[in-house]
Structures are given as C-alpha cells and as structure tokens.
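Q: What structure does this chain adopt?
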Amino acid sequence: MAGKEIRLKRLFKSSDRIIIVPMDHGVTAGPIEGIEDVPKTVRFITQGKADAIVLHKGLVPQVSHLLGASQCELILHLSASSNISPDSQRKELVSTVEHAIRLGATAVSIHVNLGNPSESHMLRDFGRISEDCQRWGIPLLAMMYVRDGSAGSEFDPGKVKHAARIAQELGADIIKVNYTGSIESFWEVTRGVKVPVVIAGGPKTSTVAQLLFMVYDALQAGAQGISIGRNIFQAPDPAQLLSTIRLITDSQITRDKLEELTQALVQGSRIP
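A:
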C-alpha cells in the first residue's frame, strides 16, 4: 500500500483537493477543438498548475518532456470506445497497469457506463484493473456514468450516489461522477463513500460563471476536486481559467469574490 500512498500524495500535493484535466477525448470523438495539438494544450494546462492530466498511451511520448518539467502528473487512461461504433457506450480495455508504469504514469483511469447492456463487461474489467492496481501500488481513478438510455439518469442523485458507491466497493481510489445540480443533492453522493470524489465537467457549459459556480458548489458539498476536460481545454485561456479554479479549490475565494473574478475572465482581464 505504500506505493499507492506515495503516488496519491503526488496527485493531491499538499492539499486534500485535486485538479485533473482529462484529454482522452481523441479516441472517442477525434481531434476536437482544444486537442488538435495536444502538446500545445498541455503547455497551457501545466502553466495553469493542474495537478494531473489524463491521456491515452500513444500521446504520452509527445508530452513527457512537458510533464517532466512541471508538477503535473500523468494518469493513463486504460479504456476506450469511439463514437463511430454502433455500441459506443461499451468501453474496452486498451492498455494495462504495467504499461502505465513503464510510461511513468502516477495513476490509471477507467470509464464505466452503468445501466448499459455491457455494464457487466465493464464491471468485470474494473475488478481486474483494481486488483492490478493493488498489486503494483498504482492509484485508480474510476470515471462512473449512469447511461441507461434516460437523459435524466446521468444527473439523478440516487443513481449517481449508487455509481460512486460501486466505484468504492470495487477498489477505486478516486471517483469521478457528474455533479447532481445542487449542494444538497451532491452531499448525498459524497457522504456515501470514503474516498475522494471529483466532478466531471460534462458538455461544454454556456458560460464561465456556470462552470465556476458548479465547481464552487461541488466543493461545498464535499467534492475533493474536479476532472474537467472540454470546459477547460476549449476555453479561450485555459491557463487563466485553471488559475481561477485553483483559487476555488484552495479555498482562497468567497462566493461574492467569485462573481467579480468571473466578470474579469469574461472581459479578458488578468485575475488579480
């Protein structure tokens, strides 16, 4: 267990909160805006002091020098599917914990879609990867989504709470779920588990304020950080946005002050 503890401290640094920027979208959706040039985007992400990024194995050689020169850790994503597939919700393992170690990853991640006809397949893979992580002392980030065909299920507090608990029961060290929309409902999620919960960003939000207040409220409800991709790497200034999120995660900002900083971001000003 010592290996996991050491690596988790690298991820969470000196606080109990974490900022993760997943950039594994290329397999699912192709070279979408913000990740056409991954090394360029990673430079912005490291400038913004993110704690970790999530990548697939083929991109690691392109950015290893950037990660080595920063305090940003690598989380290697082990599961994948593409939007081209007729069964795009079924995630398949495309790498291993051992390969992640060879690439210098601090942790690994997997994606599970609950309620999907292939749920049992993905849970079986989850269990196997969890045991490999225990064997090698590697933290496991479990990205847990409820995708049973009903749009409301993805954010249903009862189902999201269940998804988080499944992740803990199967051995996740960090759990990523959707924010359920309110502090009260998300408390139900975070208090149902004893490992760190981080929120997903979901589809790109319509405003910066919507994103920042979602992060703020999730932290008030017991979240220990974020794992947000498109809303960060598709922002006009990802480094500036991350710096603002860092103020929130480090509890250096009140709700009133957040409104002021949000306006500064919208106007393109530097955050004081």
